[in-house]
Design goal:
The structure holds two protein chains of two kinds. Chain A contains nine helices and no strands. Chain A is mostly helical. By secondary structure, chain B is mainly beta. Chain B is 7% helix and 40% strand. In chain B, the strands form eight sheets. Chain B has a four-stranded antiparallel β-sheet, with no helix packed on it. Chain B has a four-stranded antiparallel β-sheet with strand order 4-5-6-7. In chain B, a hairpin with a 5-residue loop joins strand 17 and strand 18. Chain B is globular, with a radius of gyration of 20 Å. Chain B starts with 12 loop residues before the first helix and ends in a 13-residue tail after the last strand. The chains are: A mainly alpha, B mainly beta.
């Protein structure tokens, strides 16, 4: 894995972590509801784990495809899937609906898994995952790569989510949402389409 | 689609209180003559700097007659900021307007010209019947995941009434809300404690029990609703019923605390068959169990039987007939409209189980016919009915018509419509604004629900304290 891949994976991790819909805002809300910073921090591990699980499943499925199918077919398949999902995100503005404000840890992880999956968080990473090591497709190597990629992405996502959740809870207050909650849907869709195009061209 | 959240969304009620002053009100107008004239949606100018301040600047007539417009609401509101189903970049631009008599639902767009709502969609009664099994849509609340609409009965006008959902992008009816209604049959209002995933609903009567007018036999037989129902908002299941006592007939408007960490709210019962009083109950969560306690009693007022309509002559008293209540966004002042006695009351409910009266004004009333201070000497009929408070908790707007067949029993000469304004002082006292009176006598229709542009104290719910 080269430095560029590291940076891209970590960059996407931070990008996902910044998105209020990916979980930091939920953590802040749970903290405010209980008037406790501990409640904020307690909510973060399940949120990050749910996100990581979604990414891991996506990467693992594609790794499995790489074992079974020729590389070009996998590349074009991934490109079509990621681009298609990006376009779908552009035209369909649906938001997942599940759970409420009284959530257990597993429910929170499940919610985060759904949000990440519905937003195509793992899909966004696929082209990067494909861009290295077209040569050997040993199962072991792919497994290692999948786990490592997920870990790098998740670490960056955890860092961004934690910093935002704590800063908003302690300092800024949720009033900041009124101005600072930028519509990431468009950027997100463009990122997916760009990632898909990247996969097709490399 | 917006880049930043809709500017009328506020994470918390505290923030919403700092919203700019309202510049427009939307008011449902009811045709009572029944000669083919449709109901209307009026726009009232509330900008003190405008030459048209305090006047109707537009009325949109419905395409057909006979709807009986009731408690309309917005497509989305501050609940869109809730963390578990966020959609903050959807615009608050559509008014969803239900016809209680016709079961028709209209959608008006107010974005392009806020003073002139434009009809963009009509959901026909048959569609509501077919998709939801309900009829007589009454109250609209913007939820975290859909638009929720209460309905008083089933397609035949009988029990059960309940709640159905509209998709908040397409406005298509999704279906009935309840997964398990338990013992709940009668229905009127609903609202929720979002911080606790809890819905509360109340009881009036089925369409067949109310449409011909109040039924004295049903009333004295204590057959109208007198319960609250507590629901799991996520599982859509009935958890508990709270009987307020069957002497307290018709449990109507539900005003949960706006602060999502709080676990109490207020409901009005219209009339006690024991002493004609109206009552306010406070519901609250006590060690995991939802309970309710009577916290305000508004007594009947003795009156000369000669001044009273037929059903009241025997009592020689006017029941307050509290028809609506409203709670300021800081959960401090509860406004109570006593439609029978023509009084608007204010209570400090900082201690929700020990309210303290802070103010009162009078206009109209069955026996008193108090004038409005802006038109001294002109007797007014109807009384404070639908009451709406500005987001900053300073101004109250209220109208004087309840429901056609009930108007005609208690004000048999016909309610002459008006919209008035009251100012709330820091201490919770009330003063009628003598310079603000929208007199609808000329239009001839009767005003009911008021909604303020950008939101008001009964339009939004919040997920952050």
């Amino acid at each position: 894995m080269d430095l560029t891949q590291w940076l891209i994976l970590a960059g996407f991790g931070a990008f996902h972590g910044l998105n209020p819909a990916m979980g930091w805002l939920f953590a802040v809300a749970l903290g405010l509801q209980d008037r406790s910073r501990r409640a904020v921090l307690r909510a973060l591990p399940p949120i990050v784990l749910g996100h990581a699980a979604s990414v891991l499943v996506t990467l693992a499925l594609v790794s499995a495809a790489r074992v079974a199918a020729p590389p070009r077919a996998v590349s074009y398949g991934v490109a079509a899937l990621v681009c298609g999902f990006g376009v779908w995100r552009l035209v369909r503005r649906r938001h997942p609906r599940w759970v409420g404000m009284r959530v257990t840890g597993p429910q929170l992880a499940g919610w985060s898994f759904l949000m990440a999956t519905a937003h195509g968080a793992g899909l966004m990473l696929l082209p990067v995952a494909l861009s290295g090591g077209h040569g050997g497709h040993a199962v072991l190597a792919l497994t290692q790569q999948t786990l490592l990629f997920t870990a790098v992405h998740t670490a960056a996502m955890l860092a961004a989510t934690t910093v935002l959740a704590v800063v908003v809870y302690e300092r800024l207050g949720v009033a900041v949402l009124r101005k600072a909650w930028f519509n990431l849907d468009f950027a997100w869709a463009i990122a997916l389409i760009g990632a898909g195009a990247f996969a097709a061209l490399t | 689609m917006l880049v930043q959240p809709d500017p009328t969304f506020y994470p918390s009620p505290r923030e919403a209180m700092r919203a700019p002053r309202e510049r427009l009100a939307y008011v449902a107008l009811l045709d009572a003559r029944g000669d083919g004239r449709p109901d209307g949606l009026a726009t009232v100018d509330l900008d003190p700097g405008s030459p048209a301040y305090g006047t109707i600047v537009d009325v949109q007539d419905m395409p057909v007659a006979g709807d009986e417009l009731h408690h309309f609401g917005w497509n989305v509101c501050s609940a869109a900021l809730c963390p578990y189903a966020p959609h903050p970049h959807v615009e608050r631009r559509y008014l969803v307007v239900p016809g209680l008599r016709s079961s028709r639902v209209y959608v008006f767009d107010v974005k392009d010209d806020p003073a002139r709502p434009r009809l963009v969609k009509t959901i026909e009664p048959e569609t509501i019947f077919e998709r939801t099994g309900y009829s007589r849509p009454h109250t609209v609340h913007c939820g975290t995941d859909a638009i929720y609409v209460s309905a008083l009965g089933n397609v035949d006008g009988d029990a059960p009434g309940g709640v159905f959902m509209l998709d908040h992008d397409t406005f298509e009816p999704i279906g009935p809300w309840e997964a398990d209604r338990g013992p709940q049959r009668l229905h009127y209002d609903f609202w929720w404690h979002l911080g606790h995933d809890t819905m509360i609903s109340s009881e009036w009567g089925t369409p067949n029990m109310i449409e011909a007018g109040p039924d004295l036999d049903l009333l004295l037989g204590r057959k109208y609703g007198h319960r609250l129902h507590v629901w799991d908002l996520r599982k859509r299941t009935h958890l508990r019923e709270i009987d307020l006592g069957d002497q307290h007939q018709m449990a109507l408007e539900l005003r949960p605390a706006h602060d999502p960490t709080k676990t109490h709210g207020f409901v009005n019962t219209v009339i006690s068959v024991e002493d004609l009083s109206a009552n306010i109950f406070t519901w609250y969560l006590d060690e995991g169990t939802w309970k309710a306690r009577k916290t305000i009693t508004i007594p009947a007022e003795p009156a000369d039987p000669g001044l009273l309509p037929a059903p009241l002559k025997q009592f020689g008293a006017v029941p307050p007939l509290v028809g609506d209540i409203s709670l300021t966004l800081d959960d401090r002042i509860l406004l109570i409209s006593a439609w029978g006695t023509g009084e608007l009351l204010a209570y400090d409910v900082s201690d929700p189980l020990a309210p303290r009266q802070t103010g009162s004004v009078r206009v109209g009333g069955i026996a008193r016919r108090d004038p409005h201070p802006g038109t001294a000497g002109v007797a007014r009929n109807g009384g404070p009915q639908m009451v709406e408070v500005s987001r900053d908790g300073r101004r109250v707007y209220f109208t004087n018509s309840l429901y056609r067949s009930w108007d005609d029993v208690f004000y048999p000469e016909g309610v002459s419509g008006w919209l008035a304004k009251v100012d709330i002082a820091d201490d919770g006292s009330l003063t009628l604004d003598p310079d603000f009176l929208v007199d609808l006598a000329e239009d001839g229709r009767r005003p009911h629900q008021v909604r303020l542009q950008g939101g008001d104290s009964s339009s939004d719910s919040f997920c952050y304290p």
